[in-house]
Write a structure and sequence with these properties.
Blueprint (H helix, E strand, L loop, with lengths): L3 H11 L6 H8 L3 H14 L2 E5 L3 E6 L6 H5 L11 E4 L5 H10 L7 E4 L21 E7 L9 H21 L7 E3 L3 E4 L2 E13 L2 E11 L17 H5 L5 H22 L6 H6 L7 E6 L2 E10 L5 E4 L5 E4 L5 E4 L5
Parallel strand pairs: 3-4
Antiparallel strand pairs: 1-2, 4-5, 5-9, 6-7, 7-8, 8-9, 10-11, 10-14, 11-12, 12-13
The structure holds adenosine-5'-triphosphate.
């Protein structure tokens, strides 16, 4: 059920001029006092709403406010983001999503935070998560697929994020191309823009739940020194800020559509073409870093199971499983 606040935001955004208090009361089925109270709350959250006597209300500026109503009012999905849990600050959205999953939260629940104190990368690494500038979100799912196939959903999410970000760049007439560095990074200008971390709770043949965490550097001003050459943000590349709630909504839509394609075959066969088109690794020399094993080769793309195909010097093709492996360009990070 959509909350009244979510409905007000939708109405205000779709109205070019003023929306009268009377109209709002009728559309929402609430009193004038209630409308006034909601407007007061929204103003406190940072929305610039002008109230003019005999005219009504007008949203003069849509700030980059991140909150449950702001996100919900932009979502156009059927199940992805069905429930939104927003926190100003959290340890890690993956940790929160797992907790909610244990408590019975529905598949499609989306956890979003404005700041993470213990943002996670793979193998216990840290994901820098400053407040007020980026997207940290985790989608909880209870997919009816085998646990061995779960890592493919990292790739489906990567593709969805890449497509949503590319759409923003295209609409701004920016000629840059977003790429995916297999398996879990989205890069722009050969620097890391997005990190994805999938975790699950599963039995041998059954997934209890799975959480896909996504960290996106959206309006990040400055990175810690060790990341300065390796990381970038949308703001850094575009020269202006991007609305985070809208980006989240676009990603959820892409993910829902891509997941529907994935679900038909429970593999990536229907998405391979799109994936290869945005792959940063394809036909590139790469170094594969597997726990206890390191080798080089040429990346030849991925197969329908999401494995990276790496051709070694003796022309043998290695099928690299997207579990705990890292891939580097031979001469740089990508
Ligand atoms: P690899 O580069 O080995 O493939 P990875 O993609 O598995 O690594 P993750 O574990 O997903 O990396 O992410 C953690 C790493 O990402 C950190 O070790 C750090 O180098 C980098 N990092 C941390 N925070 C950010 C950030 N906000 N933006 C970009 N990169 C970051």
């Amino acid at each position: 059920m959509e909350s009244t606040k979510t409905k007000i935001l939708k109405l205000l955004r779709s109205e070019k001029g003023y929306l009268s208090g009377q109209e709002l009361c009728e559309k929402l089925g609430v009193s004038r006092t209630a409308v006034w109270k909601y407007m007061k709350q929204l103003k406190e959250e940072g929305y610039q709403i002008q109230a003019v006597q005999n005219k009504g209300y007008c949203l003069v500026d849509v700030p980059d406010v991140l909150g449950e109503s702001e996100i919900k009012s932009r979502l156009t999905t059927k199940w992805a983001g069905k429930e939104v849990y927003f926190q100003e600050e959290t340890d890690s959205t993956n940790t929160q999503a797992k907790k909610l999953a244990e408590e019975g939260a529905v598949s499609g629940t989306l956890v979003v935070a404005d700041c993470q104190k213990k943002g996670k990368g793979r193998r216990g690494r840290v994901w820098e998560s400053p407040k007020g500038s980026s997207v940290y979100m985790t989608l909880l799912m209870r997919p009816d697929i085998l646990p061995q196939r779960a890592s493919m959903l990292t790739l489906v999410m990567g593709l969805s994020v890449a497509q949503a970000v590319q759409k923003i760049l295209d609409s701004e007439k920016c000629t840059q191309k977003v790429q995916i560095k297999w398996p879990n990074d989205v890069v722009l200008n050969r620097k890391k823009l997005v990190g994805i971390l999938t975790e699950m709770s599963a039995q041998i043949d059954y997934i209890e739940y799975l959480v896909i965490g996504v960290g996106i550097n959206v309006n990040t001003g400055e990175f810690p020194e060790e990341l300065q050459d390796k990381a970038t943000s949308l703001q850094a590349e575009l020269g202006h800020s991007v609305n985070r709630a809208e980006l989240i909504a676009q990603i959820m839509k892409r993910f829902e559509d891509n997941y529907a394609i994935f679900e038909k075959t429970q593999d990536l066969s229907g998405l391979l073409e799109e994936y290869e088109a945005v792959s940063a690794n394809c036909q590139q020399p790469v170094k594969v870093l597997e726990p206890g094993k390191e080798y080089t080769g040429i990346a030849r793309g991925i197969n329908k199971m999401g494995e990276l195909l790496v051709e070694r010097e003796d022309h043998r093709i290695e099928q690299v499983y997207a579990g705990e492996v890292s891939v580097r360009g031979l001469y740089s990070y990508v």
